[in-house]
């Protein structure tokens, strides 16, 4: 199978998807290709009135379809049919993804879409297998804890993994019996729109999945501050998460799930399998050109093996070659925009200005579009810009340690606590140090999520609140009600 396609042959949707239909508006936001820099389309920006229409449509759809109160197995069947249809339409869905994002077409077909369909099926199975509980109360009483959907979930997803992040939000919310009003990033809207269209084609009632297009200050603020939104789920930067918390507090209290930024350490001890460590450290920062909240951007290595591992990594980094996202052979992903490319380079230059050594990279690729060279920086401390700030690009710092205590001190970050990696053959050390790493997820002798969808993800410190994935994500989309009856 050839995984190349011609992006000029796509008919790109340029409207909101509300109530099972496309609703046009003034096209005020340009959508660019990071692979070429060219403008590929334009989309509208939903104001408060459009968001209000989407929320009202979602509430009406919940009432008319009884989505939250129907036979739970019927929800399961509809969600599984949606997952099947996503896989059947994988190449079209991947084309909408690759045309404006950093995700290569081939990786979306064989990776992102397959895993997202698996996750939707995983959450679908909770619909008729997870409910309330009886409460132990005294004779003459009957007590139970009811488990009910919230109603309408407001979801906001980032640009780095549009299909995957939409699946994270929609899968558990829909399985739990809610309707959703979702805003994708204005830079990567098309695959999410097509996912919503496929949901209706699969039998999910029109109006249960709604997609509104727009930016954060206008559309995102209208969603998070809307009184008809019962809960907010957001994945994005810590700065944006703080703005959402402020907006919710100002406009009305409601629960929220926030998966935010990271500055994750990968700690390598001298007894580690260095072949495995080199592969994981490479993939941990270079996957999607470092544009992932879980990227292992801080490498912390035992001094005994530091020179060898640094040499292996610089050799690996030098092999990367940029390729546009619709090429027949996947290459190194583009940075999402020229603005983000400039920000990455400014942090690298600031780091060097503070005395750091750039072992490799440290500049843009000479290639059309937005591409940055894989970069490894050493000679840094906790105050250095490359250690302190989330770069969201293919840039890693490299620090060394002489003891466990020093390793854990270096691994700690004053702001972030999303993920951490640990490489050692010593099981006792692994078990001991996983308890000391201040992160919501710790990977040992690997780096990155698996297809064990039962494992949740959460952030500590300023890396987030609540959970995505796992049974915890399903529970996060339902609320408890205590009932006590005198018999």
Tell me what you see in this structure.
With 487 residues, the chain is α/β, with parallel strands linked by helices. It has two domains: 277 residues, Aldehyde Dehydrogenase, Chain A, domain 1 (3-Layer(aba) Sandwich), CATH 3.40.605.10; 189 residues, Aldehyde Dehydrogenase, Chain A, domain 2, CATH 3.40.309.10. Helix content is 38%, strand content 21%. It has 15 helices and 22 strands. A hairpin with a 5-residue loop joins strand 5 and strand 6. The radius of gyration is 23 Å and the shape is globular. The model has no long low-confidence stretch (mean pLDDT 96).
Question: SS-based structural class?
Answer: alpha/beta
Largest sheet: 7 strands, mixed
How much helix is in the residues?
25-40%
CATH-wise, what's the superfamily of the largest domain?
Answer: Aldehyde Dehydrogenase, Chain A, domain 1
> Approximately how much beta-strand content do the residues carry?
15-25%
The poorly predicted ranges are: none
Radius of gyration: 23 Å
Can you count the helices?
15
Distance between the termini: 66 Å
Order of the strands making up the biggest sheet:
14-15-16-13-12-18-19
CATH topology of the largest domain: Aldehyde Dehydrogenase, Chain A, domain 1
Mean pLDDT: 96
Number of domains: 2
Tell me how many strands there are. 22
Overall morphology? globular
């Amino acid at each position: 199978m050839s995984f190349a396609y011609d992006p000029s042959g796509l008919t790109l949707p340029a409207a909101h998807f509300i109530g099972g239909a496309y609703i046009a508006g003034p096209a005020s936001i340009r959508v660019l290709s990071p692979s070429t820099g060219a403008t590929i389309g334009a989309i509208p920006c939903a104001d408060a009135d459009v968001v209000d229409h989407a929320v009202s449509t979602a509430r009406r759809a919940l009432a008319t379809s009884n989505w939250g109160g129907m036979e739970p197995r019927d929800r399961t069947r509809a969600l599984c049919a949606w997952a099947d249809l996503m896989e059947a339409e994988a190449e079209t869905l991947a084309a909408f993804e690759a045309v404006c994002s950093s995700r290569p077409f081939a990786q979306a077909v064989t990776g992102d879409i397959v895993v997202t369909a698996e996750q939707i099926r995983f959450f679908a199975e909770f619909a008729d297998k997870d409910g309330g509980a009886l409460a132990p109360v005294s004779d003459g009483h009957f007590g139970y804890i009811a488990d009910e959907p919230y109603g309408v979930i407001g979801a906001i997803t980032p640009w780095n993994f549009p299909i995957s992040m939409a699946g994270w939000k929609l899968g558990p919310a829909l399985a739990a019996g809610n309707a959703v009003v979702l805003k994708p990033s204005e830079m990567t809207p098309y695959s999410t729109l097509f996912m919503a269209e496929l949901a209706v084609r699969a039998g999910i009632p029109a109006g249960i999945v709604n997609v509104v297009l727009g930016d954060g200050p206008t559309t995102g603020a209208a969603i998070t501050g809307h009184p008809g939104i019962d809960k907010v789920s957001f994945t994005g930067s810590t700065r944006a998460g703080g703005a959402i918390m402020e907006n919710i507090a100002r406009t009305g209290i409601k629960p929220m799930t926030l998966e935010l930024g990271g500055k994750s350490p990968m700690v390598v001890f001298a007894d580690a399998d260095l072949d495995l460590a080199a592969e994981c450290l490479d993939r941990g920062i270079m996957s999607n050109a470092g544009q992932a909240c879980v990227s292992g951007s801080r490498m912390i290595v035992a001094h005994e093996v530091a020179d060898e591992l640094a040499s292996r990594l610089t050799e690996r980094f030098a092999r990367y070659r940029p390729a546009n996202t619709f090429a027949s052979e996947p290459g190194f992903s583009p940075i999402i925009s020229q603005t983000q490319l400039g920000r990455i380079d400014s942090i690298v230059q600031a780091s060097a200005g503070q005395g750091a050594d750039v072992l490799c990279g440290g500049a843009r690729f000479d290639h059309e579009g937005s591409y940055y060279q894989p970069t490894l920086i050493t000679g840094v401390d906790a105050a250095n810009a490359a250690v302190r700030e989330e770069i969201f690009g293919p840039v890693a710092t490299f620090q060394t340690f002489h003891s466990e205590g020093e390793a854990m001190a270096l691994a700690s970050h004053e702001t972030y606590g999303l993920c951490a990696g640990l490489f050692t053959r010593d099981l006792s050390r692994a078990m001991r140090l996983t308890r000391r790493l201040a992160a919501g997820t710790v990977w040992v002798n690997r780096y990155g999520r698996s297809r064990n969808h039962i494992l949740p993800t959460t952030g500590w410190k300023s890396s987030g609140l609540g959970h995505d994935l796992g049974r915890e994500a399903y529970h996060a989309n339902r609320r408890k009600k205590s009932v006590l009856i005198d018999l």
